Amino acid sequence: MLPYIAEFIGTMILILLGDGVVANVTLNKSGMKGAGSIQITFAWGLAVLIPAFIFGAASGAHFNPALTIALAVDGSMAWGLVPGYLVAQFAGAFCGAVLVYLLFKDQFDATESAATKLGVFSTGPSIPNMGRNILSEAIGTFVLVFSIKGISQVGGIATGLDKFLVFGIIVSVGMSLGGLTGYAINPARDLGPRIAHSVLPIKGKGDSNWGYAPVVIVGPVIGAVAAVLLYQAIPWA
After folding, report:
1. How high is the pLDDT of residue 160?
2. Measured between alpha carbons, how far is 97 from 95 in angstroms, rounded to an integer?
3. Can you give the pLDDT at residue 158?
4. What percent helix, strand, coil does the chain show, rounded to 5?
5. What are the two backbone dihedrals, phi and then psi, of residue 127, each rounded to the nearest 5 degrees?
6. How far is CA 131 from CA 78, 128, 152, 213, in A?
7. What is the maximum alpha-carbon separation in the chain?
């Protein structure tokens, strides 16, 4: 039970801090409105880092269905754990997004743009192109998962330093590729908040752009699985 609790709370914290920074920077009447993409990118890295320290020993700190599926594919975790991890991750992401709405409700009410409101919760492409958007998410997730696996190549790494390396990976992917699709690289990170957007009574919210949802499922899963398969195929020893 502990791993599922850890994945639920950890993903909730991730979304609270990650979607929270987007709200903080983009919504009207926020004290940090206009701070920009650098703050968002660094804050998303920290949003992963903080719960990873707390729950790394309890669950492995996946907080990402694509990573969970990929680790089951390469045998790093049992398939029997996967359904519980996925439910916990999506539920945690949904609850984290609800908390962001409750905290920033006045700012949501003061913001007219429906696109800005949706952007707090979920990702979207700068140029819609389903195939290329899926490729972008696949490659971004590939880099994330391949790099996470590659941390094991660092000899004598100090306990806890691996979490800082994951922070660096998230920031790097965001700064280099984030302008294409908003770098979901995590189905729960997008779909949990997108569901929250669709059911919450957000003033003037517009639609939840469900037509884009396949991108954040297919791309990350393909990229994550490709990463672990390539990592396994390399003769490291």
Report:
1. 83
2. 5
3. 82
4. 75, 0, 25
5. -130, 115
6. 32, 9, 33, 13
7. 58
Compute the distance between CA of residue 152 and CA of residue 138 in angstroms, rounded to an integer: 22
Q: What is the DSSP string of 16-54?
A: HHHHHHHHHHHSTT-TTTT--HHHHHHHHHHHHHHHHHH
The average confidence (pLDDT) of the chain is 97
CB within 8 Å of 38: residues ≥ 6 apart: none
DSSP string, the chain: -HHHHHHHHHHHHHHHHHHHHHHHHHSTT-TTTT--HHHHHHHHHHHHHHHHHHHHHHH-----HHHHHHHHHTTSS-GGGHHHHHHHHHHHHHHHHHHHHHHTHHHHHH---HHHHHHHHS---SS--HHHHHHHHHHHHHHHHHHHHHGGGSTTPPTTHHHHHHHHHHHHHHHHHHHHH----SHHHHHHHHHHHHHS--TT-----GGGHHHHHHHHHHHHHHHHHHHHHS---
Distance CA 102, CA 200 (A): 10
Say whether pLDDT at 155 is over 90. no
- What's the pLDDT band for 208 if we cut at 50, 70, 90? very high
Q: What is the pLDDT of residues 69-95, one digit of tens each?
A: 999 999 999 999 999 999 999 999 999
Per-residue confidence (pLDDT) for residue 117, from 0 to 100: 98
